[in-house]
Each structure stands twice: as structure tokens, then as C-alpha cells.
Amino acid sequence: MSRYIKVKVNPKARLNKVQEETDGSFTVWTTAPPDKGAANDSVLRALANHLGLPRRMLSLKSGATSRQKLFEITDALK
Q: Is the pTM of this model over 0.70?
């Protein structure tokens, strides 16, 4: 079974930070620039670390070039 989370990304920030919002979505600040997927990779690592999950359990489903992204958390057994 998988779960989806909405993420708002702020690239080129001063620090890397993950904040969970009251509606269950996340806001992620990353120092990586939005160039060639660097920010997406940084957000993926930050989310996995914040949630205590291995990176392989998270995947970007939509919003590769947008600040609004949708990530899927997949079951560990897959």
C-alpha cells in the first residue's frame, strides 16, 4: 500500500530544513539549486531522513519542475 504526500519546495535556501504543516503536507527548504534535478534529489534525501525511511521508499510522482511536488511513499515489501 502506498501513501502520497504534498511538498512545497524552496530551493536555494540558506539551510536544509523540513517542516510538517498542519494539513499533513510538508515544506522543504534546500540549499540546492533547481538545476538538473539537484533540488529534487536534495528534497528526496531530506524527506527520507525526516521521516526515518530509506530513500528507495520515496519517489517523485509529479512536479519535477515545480515548487509543488507530490511524493509517493511505497511499502517496504515491494
A: yes
